[in-house]
Amino acid sequence: MDHLIDDIDKKIMQLLQQNARMPISQISKQNAMSPPSVKERIMKLEEKNIIASYTTVFRLQELNRGMTTFILVKTEQCQELVDFCHNADEVTDLFRISGEYNYLIKIQTGSVGEAAAFQDTLVTLGASKSHISMKNIIENRVLL
Length: 144
Description:
The protein folds into 2 domains: 8-47, Orthogonal Bundle (Arc Repressor Mutant, subunit A); 60-132, Lrp/AsnC effector binding domain/regulation of amino acid metabolism (RAM) domain (Alpha-Beta Plaits, 2-Layer Sandwich). It is 37% helix and 19% strand. It is built from 5 helices and 4 strands, in the order H-H-H-E-H-E-E-H-E. Helix 2 packs across helix 3. The protein starts with 6 loop residues before the first helix and ends in a 12-residue tail after the last strand. 12% of the residues are buried. Residues 5-66 form the HTH asnC-type domain. This is DNA-binding transcriptional regulator, Lrp family. It comes from Paenibacillus algorifonticola. One of its GO terms (molecular function) is sequence-specific DNA binding.
């Protein structure tokens, strides 16, 4: 399985992670490459599924969803929790974790009351504990 990427691929990926809509012409200038060469490299990264998708980042504060809460859940009703989270608009991420609790849910709401109401709906699925984010220090860090 050949998933090795070189420094040029890394530079292209860094630029795309900062701005997925960056024109190929601009990427090629920053890498001193021809646009067809850059396009070919991007296509290969997509084919290898190293670049899996392109997304849009929203300013959640402007959508009245600026409060981030992490909820730990201890449940034996795993599939029910997963299904519930798939259908809940507040849920942005769901993680299977080790330790005393077996799931970590990340939700985005507009208020503490909305977060509490969401957590109240989990009571039939098991014990839960919430942690409200006071400030997001690092978000969507460029990994390369």
